[in-house]
Design goal:
Layout lengths: L61 E2 L6 H8 L11 E7 L2 E9 L3 E8 L12 E2 L6 E7 L6 E8 L4 E4 L15 E2 L10 H10 L7 E5 L17 H15 L3 E4 L3 E2 L12 E5 L6 H13 L3 E6 L25 H4 E2 L4 E2 L6 H17 L4 E4 L2 H5 L21 H17 L4 E4 L21 E3 L1 H12 L9 H5 L1 H4 L5 E5 L19 H17 L3 E5 L24 H19 L13 E8 L4 E6 L8 E6 L5 E8 L4 E7 L16 E2 L10 E7 L3 E7 L14
Parallel strand pairs: 10-11, 10-21, 11-14, 14-17, 17-18, 18-19, 19-20, 20-21
Antiparallel strand pairs: 1-6, 2-3, 3-6, 4-7, 5-6, 7-8, 7-9, 12-13, 15-16, 22-23, 23-24, 24-29, 25-28, 26-27, 26-29
Helix pairs in contact: 3-4, 6-8, 12-13
C-alpha cells in the first residue's frame, strides 16, 4: 500500500471536516520507517486468528489451566497484587502441546461465566470457564486453538439470574468504537530506547528542567486529504517528534489514550483501562511512537483516570450483576458532574486492579510519568454534592479516607517499582501534602498542578492594563504558597474549551497588545518557580478555542504574529533548559527572591531566580503595562556587568524592538534595598531577563531567534 499523505503542520488544512464520525486510519498504512520486529514469542508463533467451521468447533475444548499460584491469590485478595495484567485477561499459551488462549476474569457474584466470540458463533453454552475453588471469585480456563486476533467477550449470568455480555477489563486491545469486543493480542515489542531508559532518572529529576507539551492525539493534526481521518501512532511519530525537538519541550503529555467508547469525552471516560485506543493503531504502534520520542530525548506522560468510569453496559459498571468495581452506595459511587461511576477504593481487588493498571503503562509501554486526573474529586466525599447527598467519614469529616489511602498506596507502588518516573496530581484544592512523601503524611505525588496560580494569572492578564494596578495582589499571591508543594504551572486544555476562548483571545487590547500580552504571560510562566505545561495550539497563539473534532490551525503560522509566539516559546524553552537558576531550585524558597514585588502603580514585577551557584542568578523584570520605561533603575544582587539575555519584545517575536542591547555596568547606587543597581530601558508589555557577565568570560548568549 502506498504511503498515506498526511497534513503538514505548516500548511492550511483542506476543506473543513464534516460532522460525520471520523474514520480511523487503518493500522496497515505504511509506516514512516520500517516496522520494528513485533512478532510474538516463539512458543506462541503458531497462533493465528482462527475461523472455525461447525464441524471443527468441537476441537475448541475448554480445559482446566491456571496462571495463578496460591501466593497470587493471597496478594489479589489483600489488594497487594500489582501485576494482575500478567494473570487476568487473555493470554496466548501452549498447554499440553497445543496453542490456545487462557482466559481469566474476576466475577465473584456470577453463577456462570463463558467466553463468547466468532470462534464459537457467540454461543454462551460452548466454552464455560471454571470457578476457582479458593473463593477468589476468579473464573478461568484454557481454550485450544484460539489465538491472536480473536474477538471475544464474557457472558456472565449473575446470582440474581441477570445475563450480561461484558468486555474484558484486562483486554490489551479492543475493537474500533462503536464496536466493543475485546481482542486477544500479544504486546511483545523489541524496544530500542535503552539509552533513554538508562538516563531517565536524570531527565525526570526534580532539579532538572521539566517542560511539558500537553496534547490530544486525535486533533493535533489530521490527514490532509481526509481531514476527518486520524493520524495513526506511527504517522504521528513522523511529525510530532521533530516538532517537539524544534520547540524544545522536555516531555509530551498525552490526554488519555486508553480505550474509550465516546470520542467527545476526550478519553476521560475510559472503558478499556489496559488497552491503547484502536482509533490510532495497535499496541505496537503506540510503543513505536513512545520509542521514537525517547530516542529523541523526549519523555512521555500519560493522563490516567482512576477517579471514575462510564456506565456503558459492556464495560465495568454492574460487571457481574452487582456493584463490583463501583461503590454500591451511590453517595460514594456516582459522580454527579460526569454522570459516571466512582471506583470502590475500599475494596482490595479494585485497588489491585487500579494500581496494576498504573504499573502496566510504566512497565509495558515504558511511560515516564502519570498525570492523575481529578484528584480533588477523589479526596472529598462532598465534591460536587449538596447537603444530604453525601455521608461523612467515621470521624465526621468530608475526606474520603479510602481514596486517600488508595492514592498513598498507588504512589508508593509507582516509586518503589519505577523510582525514575513521576506522578503528577491534578488537584485544585488546598489539601495538605499532595506532593509530599507518604512517610511524612503526604499523598506521595511527585508534583501537583498549581491551579490557583493558573486562575489568578489568567484573571490578571484578562484585565485591561490600565486596571492591573488594582489587581496587583492576584499576580503576586502565588509566591506566598509557591513552595508548599512541588508545583507544575499548567495552561491546559481545560482553559481553552467550553466558550473560554483561546489563550490568545483571553488577552485584552488590540492585536499587537494581545500578542505582546501572551508573550509576556508565557515569559512570566517560564520564570516563575515550578515546572511548566502548555496545551497544544497555545504555543503558536491559535486564535480559536480547541475543537477536538478538527486539526489544530497550523496554517496561521504563515503570519508573522503567530510565528512570533512560536519563536517566543522556543526561546523560552531554550532559556529554561539552559539556565540552572530556572530549574535547580524550582521547589525551594531559596531559589526565588523579590527585588520589587510591590510596584502596583507601574504594574512592574522584579525578582531574582537562583541556582546552586550565585554566578547563575538571573534578574527578571516584567512590565505588565503597555508603557516603555526609560532610565528605570533596578537593584541587582551583585556589582558587575549585566547583560540582557532575553526580551519578549524582540522584533523577531513580533515585538516593538525596545531592548537593552549592550552590557550594563552596575553603579554603587542603593536601590531596592541593594547596594548596587543598573539603569535599564523597560519594554512595553514585555519581560526582560538579565544575567551577570562573568569576568574574563564571553558575554552570556541571548535567547532569541535561532
Amino acid at each position: 500500500m502506498a504511503k498515506k499523505k498526511v497534513e503538514p503542520i505548516s500548511e492550511a488544512p483542506a476543506k473543513k471536516a464534516s460532522a460525520k464520525k471520523a474514520a480511523p486510519v487503518k493500522t496497515e498504512t505504511a509506516a514512516p520507517k520500517p516496522e520494528k520486529k513485533t512478532a510474538a514469542p516463539k512458543k506462541a508463533a503458531a497462533s493465528k486468528k482462527t475461523t472455525m467451521s461447525a464441524d471443527t468447533t468441537e476441537l475448541l475444548r475448554v480445559e482446566p489451566y491456571s496462571r495463578f499460584t496460591d501466593f497470587d491469590i493471597a496478594l489479589f485478595r489483600s489488594g497487594k497484587h500489582f501485576k494482575l495484567y500478567e494473570k487476568l485477561g487473555s493470554h496466548v499459551v501452549e498447554h499440553k502441546g497445543v496453542i490456545g488462549t487462557y482466559f481469566s476474569v474476576w466475577a465473584p457474584n456470577a453463577q456462570y461465566v463463558a467466553v463468547i466470540g466468532n470462534f464459537n458463533y457467540w454461543d454462551k453454552g460452548t466454552h464455560s470457564l471454571n470457578p476457582r475453588w479458593d473463593g477468589s471469585g476468579i473464573w478461568e480456563g484454557f481454550i485450544a486453538h484460539v489465538g491472536v486476533g480473536e474477538v471475544y467477550k464474557y457472558f456472565i449470568k449473575s446470582t440474581s439470574g441477570e445475563e450480561l455480555e461484558k468486555s474484558d477489563p484486562f483486554a490489551l486491545r479492543w475493537e474500533l468504537p462503536p464496536r466493543t469486543g475485546s481482542i486477544v493480542v500479544d504486546t511483545f515489542y523489541e524496544w530500542h530506547d535503552q539509552d533513554w531508559m538508562k538516563k531517565r532518572a536524570e531527565h525526570n529529576a526534580l532539579d532538572k528542567p521539566y517542560s511539558v507539551y500537553e496534547m490530544h492525539v486525535g486533533s493535533w493534526a489530521r490527514n490532509i486529504e481526509s481531514p476527518d481521518e486520524f493520524l495513526n501512532y506511527r504517522e504521528l511519530a513522523a511529525k510530532l517528534v521533530p516538532y517537539i525537538q524544534e520547540m524544545g519541550f522536555t516531555h509530551v503529555e498525552f490526554m488519555p489514550i486508553m480505550e474509550h467508547p465516546y470520542y467527545p469525552s476526550w478519553g476521560y471516560q475510559i472503558s478499556g483501562f489496559y488497552a491503547a485506543s484502536s482509533r490510532y493503531g495497535s499496541p505496537q504502534d503506540l510503543m513505536y511512537l513512545i520509542e521514537e520520542l525517547h530516542k529523541a530525548g523526549i519523555g512521555v506522560i500519560l493522563d490516567w483516570v482512576p477517579s471514575h468510569f462510564p456506565g456503558d453496559a459492556h464495560a465495568l459498571y454492574n460487571f457481574d450483576g452487582t456493584h463490583l468495581y463501583e461503590h454500591a452506595d451511590m453517595r460514594k459511587g456516582f459522580h454527579p458532574d460526569w454522570k459516571s461511576y466512582i471506583f470502590n477504593y475500599g475494596r482490595n481487588e479494585v485497588r489491585a486492579f487500579l494500581i496494576s493498571n498504573a504499573l502496566f503503562w510504566l512497565d509495558r509501554y515504558h511511560v515516564d510519568g502519570l498525570r492523575v486526573d481529578a484528584v480533588a474529586s477523589m479526596l472529598y466525599l462532598d465534591y460536587s454534592r449538596k447537603h444530604g447527598e453525601w455521608e461523612a467519614n467515621i470521624y465526621g469529616g468530608n475526606e474520603n479516607l479510602e481514596a486517600i489511602s488508595f492514592l498513598k498506596e498507588f504512589n508508593e507502588a509507582v516509586y518503589s517499582h519505577f523510582p525514575d518516573t513521576q506522578t503528577i496530581a491534578e488537584e485544585s484544592t488546598s489539601f495538605t501534602g499532595v506532593s509530599r512523601p507518604v512517610y511524612t503524611g503526604g499523598l506521595g505525588f511527585g508534583m501537583k498542578w498549581m491551579m490557583g496560580w493558573m486562575h489568578d494569572s489568567i484573571n490578571y492578564f484578562e484585565e485591561d492594563p490600565i486596571n492591573r494596578k488594582y489587581h496587583h495582589n492576584e499576580i503576586t499571591f502565588s509566591l506566598i504558597y509557591a513552595f508548599t508543594e512541588n508545583f507544575m504551572l499548567p495552561f491546559s486544555h481545560d482553559e481553552v474549551v467550553y466558550g473560554k476562548g483561546s489563550m490568545l483571545r483571553k488577552m485584552p487590547g488590540d492585536e499587537w497588545q494581545q500578542f505582546a500580552n501572551l508573550r509576556l504571560l508565557y515569559s512570566y510562566m517560564f520564570t516563575h518557580p515550578g515546572t511548566k505545561l502548555l496545551f497544544m495550539g497555545a504555543e503558536f497563539g491559535q486564535g480559536v478555542e480547541w475543537n477536538f473534532q478538527e486539526s489544530l490551525q497550523w496554517y496561521v503560522l504563515q503570519y508573522p504574529n503567530h510565528q512570533g509566539i512560536k519563536e517566543t516559546v522556543k526561546a523560552l524553552n531554550r532559556l529554561y533548559r539552559s539556565e540552572p537558576a530556572l530549574y535547580e531550585k524550582a521547589f525551594e524558597g531559596s531559589g526565588f527572591e523579590w527585588i520589587d514585588g510591590g510596584n502596583a502603580n507601574d504594574s512592574i514585577l522584579i525578582f531574582t531566580r537562583k541556582g546552586f551557584k550565585s554566578a547563575d542568578d538571573l534578574v527578571i523584570v516584567l512590565n505588565m503595562a503597555p508603557v516603555t520605561r526609560h532610565d528605570f533603575r533596578v537593584g541587582v544582587p551583585e556589582s558587575g556587568t549585566w547583560q540582557e539575555i532575553f526580551n519578549s519584545d524582540a522584533e523577531g517575536f513580533w515585538g516593538s524592538g525596545v531592548a537593552n542591547p549592550h552590557p550594563i555596568k552596575s553603579e554603587v547606587v542603593n536601590w531596592h534595598g541593594r547596594q548596587n543597581s543598573i539603569n535599564i530601558t523597560v519594554p512595553p508589555l514585555a519581560a526582560s531577563i538579565f544575567k551577570k557577565v562573568k569576568e574574563n568570560k564571553d558575554v552570556p548568549k541571548k535567547y532569541e531567534l535561532k
